[in-house]
Amino acid sequence: MPASVRSVVRDLDRHWRRQGVPRVLRSSVADDVTADLVAAQRSGRSVEVALGMDVLQFAEQVARANGWSVPWPLYGRMLASAAVGAAAAIVVGFALVLPSTVLALDGVGYVLRALGVEFGPAGPGAWYAPLVYAVYVLFGVAFVVAVLGAVRRGLRYGRRVRETLRAGTVLLPLSAALSVPAAVAVAHLNHFSGAPLVVASEFGLVLGAAAAALVAARSWALRQPAEG
Amino acid sequence: MRGSLDLCVLAAVDQRPGHAYELASRLADAGLGDVSYGTVYPLITRLRRAGLLLEQQEPSPVGPPRKVFSLTDAGRAALRDWLAQWRRSTSDVESVLRATGVWAARTP
Questions:
Q1: Quick check: B1 pLDDT over 50?
Q2: Interface mutation target, options A28, A61, A68, A70, chain B, most CBs of B under 10 Å
Q3: Are the beta carbons of A82 and A147 closer than 8 angstroms?
Q4: Cα–Cα distance for residue pair A142/A134, rounded to 1 Å
Q5: What would the pLDDT profile of A163-209 be if each residue is shown by its tens digit?
Q6: For residue B57, which phi and psi values (nearest 5 degrees)?
Q7: Are A37 and A5 in contact (CB under 8 A)?
Q8: Which of A36, A45, A69 to mutate to test the interface with B (most CBs of B within 10 A)?
Q9: Is the Cβ–Cβ distance between B15 and B26 less than 8 Å?
Q10: Is the pLDDT of residue A14 over 70?
Q11: Where are the domains of chain B?
Q12: Which residue in B has a C-alpha nearest to residue A48's C-alpha?
């Protein structure tokens, strides 16, 4: 295939892919256009002359003619992006924030003891509880922000992204409010076991609920009437 | 112009089924020199989706199978209707131009 045809077809495919057009649809049309443009070159016409317009303009016209100018669901791309954001938040949270918080709390306890504060038989836990909860809440907020940020990036060429993020901002914390107590209950029932299956089911509960919340948010966003 | 291009494409396909590029070339050769493949291909796609054209794969000696477009029964009926409409509207316009005297005065 001539390089100029390859370049045009690559630009077309990229444009349609960014719009979320499924591969099976765009590859059929890309094959078709490729064959036609190769024929045009064989007959002595350049690709530019054959198209008679800008590549993106042609891509848009073909998309409209095929009925592709619709907000594609992009659930797979959204969940894959969300998984990247969630993984980043979990890694950063568990690897950096939580251990450093524990160390900081130990440091606070040491200072309080040095100052002669009496903790009683329960130890300094009562002093720490609000701090620990605050750290978890902050971690939760950071998790939601990371996931929504990743979704925003993943869907940057899609439609109804703003509505999806708006709904996600409500539904993700709601899902956490339901799934985190459920995960804690599972942990409690298993005596806070660190067994892989138990930990995996706790993570599964929270992440599964978050995924369901995102799908619900996207689904809601797609049902909204078009703006303008 | 868009409606008349639809009519031209249907007429070209009626003359002989063909690939999108071949149809665009035939239209250009027939007098629509400004109409490019880039204009004709989306139009063919729209007509196919409207059920006026039928798409069939045809083996190609130099590459992957290619799509050949032919008229469906609905396409033939649309061509007939649009042709009648075209004749009627052009004759109406010509009548107006003749009645106003512009036709005779400006015809070279």
A1: no
A2: A61
A3: yes
A4: 12
A5: 999 999 999 999 999 998 999 899 889 888 888 999 899 999 999 99
A6: -80, 135
A7: yes
A8: A36
A9: yes
A10: yes
A11: 2-106
A12: B38
Whether the CB of A25 is below 8 Å from some CB of chain B: the reply is no
| Model pLDDT for residues A140-151, shown as the tens digit of each residue | 888 899 999 999
pLDDT tens per residue across span B40-77: 999 999 999 999 999 998 887 766 678 999 999 999 99
Pairs of CB atoms within 8 A across A/B = 63
Using an 8 Å Cβ cutoff, are A35 and B63 in contact?
yes
pLDDT at A228: 41
- With beta carbons less than 8 A apart as the criterion, state whether A37 and A50 touch: yes
CATH 1.10.10.10 describes domain B2-106: yes
What is the pLDDT, as a whole number, of residue B26? Answer: 92
Return d(Cα A68, Cα A30) in angstroms, integer. 14
* One-letter-per-residue 3-state SS of chain A: CCHHHHHHHHHHHHHHHHHCCCHHHHHHHHHHHHHHHHHHHHCCCCHHHHHCCCHHHHHHHHHHHCCCCCCCCCHHHHHHHHHHHHHHHHHHHHHHHHHHHHHHHHHHHHHHHHCCCCCCCCCCHHHHHHHHHHHHHHHHHHHHHHHHHHHHHHCCCCCCHHHHHHHHHHHHHHHHHHHHHHHHHHHHHCCCCCCHHHHHHHHHHHHHHHHHHHHHHHHHHHHCCCCC
Domain residue ranges of chain A, discontinuous segments joined by + = 3-65, 75-223
| Residue of chain A nearest B21, judged by CA positions | A36
